[in-house]
Amino acid sequence: MDSKQDANKVHFANLSPPESPMIESAVNNFSEHIDGEMLRIKPQFTITFAKSGSDLVGTVEITNVDSKAVSYKIKTTAPEKFRVRPSTGVLPPSASVTINVVLQQGQQINTINREKFLVMCIGVANDISSNPQELAELWKTISAKSGSVEQHRLKCALPVNFDESGMDSVFGSSGGNITSGTDHYGSVPSYGGGGMTPMGGDKQMAHLQQTIAHLNDTTHRLEAQVKRNHKLQWITCILFVLLSVAIVYILKVEIKSNASQYCSTIEGHH
Length: 270
Prior knowledge:
Elements: H1 3-12, E1 24-25, E2 39-42, E3 46-48, E4 50-52, E5 55-64, E6 70-76, E7 82-85, E8 88-91, E9 96-103, E10 116-123, H2 132-140, E11 150-157, E12 177-183, E13 186-192, H3 200-269
């Protein structure tokens, strides 16, 4: 066995047997998005779910923009609701991967916008193993609050004009009797039993929240554009001042030179 395999064996020898969870439950309050330099996330702020056959699927593309390999891990506030593949992995420099997030059958569609995802990453050695079990063990030893862990938070949303027709037989409807329910953020209303007639107020609220999410994304992009424009304005002003100083200096030199020549000519005539 070569030295690389031996190193991997030593690294994981004292760790407990892997459980290989597809998704781990995240802490209730995700950290705000950090503009790090290891991963580029697309979309940057909101996962929008869409119909794909009989499934509701969202996708996230992550790209390693660092000069070294990066290990990533996906967490969610509702691991029982979603299937995430791949939830962990290793990306060499400049490599990309598309993460598929699928709503599990039997879950309620109209509660998607309550959930969040957290993309974490950390720099690793280029020769690290990409074995899922070994990566699961590696992430068990890493704290999400560690300063070396980069975090990107994503919200969930449906398209503004999402059509739920044909999905009731697979996913829970927003209709029915209200019963008490609890998620990671405390007590919230859930819906069970009864008929399948949608509740208009809930749909309007979901559409409003989705619209707000899209507006937030647009606002973030505009803020980034304004910052870039401010930088360009400052650079332009500095260049203009430097150019003005150079022109004034050249003019002074020319005037001084012409004056010297004029004086020399007059003295020659005398």
